[in-house]
């Protein structure tokens, strides 16, 4: 079994000057940390959900993933900047230091913030909302651990990210 260790988030946010919707995960999985990019675990359905929402091919490479996000005015980051964690398990996260989302919010016209799963939303509400005062909506996790949600149900729930204010 993996041991607990304090880990710093290994990569920065992905956003562009036109990003209007920010999607926050909790903290990168072991696979994501290895790939140095978001949602790197092959069983995570994030890329399938986003591709389905926009009628695109599921991206494979990091440049394809970046293009998918940026071409639809989305932004990606995580609620947690560093924490003590065992492997990839959100349930083991403790001693959290949140990310400073002003890096994105000061540079892009973000209109809405969505959290990918309960842990991200919990961390947002506890650490980030009191600082920013901007609410975030919790979406069902695309993690393989959230097996009760089919891809079809996830796509339906996540379709709110396409709505414009």
Feature tags:
single chain; 165 residues; alpha/beta; Uracil-DNA Glycosylase, subunit E; four-stranded parallel sheet; three-stranded antiparallel sheet; 6 helices; globular
Described by strand count, sense and barrel closure, the largest sheet is:
4 strands, parallel
CATH superfamily: Uracil-DNA glycosylase-like domain
**How far is the first residue's CA from the last residue's CA?**
46 Å
Number of E-type strands:
7
Low-confidence stretches: none
Globally, the shape reads globular
Order the strands across the largest sheet as they lie in space: 3-2-6-7
Strand content: 15-25%
Structural class: alpha/beta
**Mean pLDDT over the full residue set:** 95
Number of domains: 1
Fold blueprint:
Elements: E1 4-8, E2 21-25, H1 30-35, H2 46-53, H3 62-70, E3 74-78, E4 80-86, E5 94-98, H4 102-105, E6 112-116, H5 118-132, E7 137-139, H6 151-158
Parallel strand pairs: 2-3, 2-6, 6-7
Antiparallel strand pairs: 1-4, 4-5
Q: Would you mind describing this structure in some detail?
A:
The chain has 165 residues and is α/β, with parallel strands linked by helices. It has a single domain, classed as Uracil-DNA Glycosylase, subunit E. The chain contains six helices and seven strands. It has helices spanning 30-35, 46-53, 62-70, 102-105, 118-132, 151-158, and strands spanning 4-8, 21-25, 74-78, 80-86, 94-98, 112-116, 137-139. A four-stranded parallel beta sheet has the order 3-2-6-7. A three-stranded antiparallel beta sheet has the order 1-4-5, with helices on one face. Helix 2 (46-53) packs across helix 6 (151-158). The longest helix is centred in the C-terminal third of the chain and has 15 residues, at 118-132. The N and C termini lie far apart (46 Å).
């Amino acid at each position: 079994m993996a041991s607990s260790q304090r880990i710093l988030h290994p990569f920065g946010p992905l956003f562009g000057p036109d990003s209007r919707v920010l999607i926050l995960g909790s903290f990168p999985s072991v696979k994501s940390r290895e790939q140095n990019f978001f949602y790197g675990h092959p069983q995570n359905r994030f890329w399938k959900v986003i591709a389905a929402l926009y009628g695109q091919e599921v991206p494979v490479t990091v440049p394809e993933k970046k293009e998918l996000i940026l071409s639809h005015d989305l932004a990606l980051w995580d609620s947690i900047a560093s924490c003590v964690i065992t492997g990839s398990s959100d349930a083991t996260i403790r001693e959290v230091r949140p990310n400073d989302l002003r890096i994105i919010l000061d540079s892009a016209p973000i209109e809405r913030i969505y959290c990918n799963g309960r842990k991200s939303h919990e961390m947002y509400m506890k650490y980030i909302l009191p600082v920013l005062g901007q609410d975030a909506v919790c979406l069902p996790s695309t993690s393989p651990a959230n097996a009760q949600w089919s891809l079809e149900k996830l796509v339906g729930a996540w379709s709110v990210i396409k709505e414009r204010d």
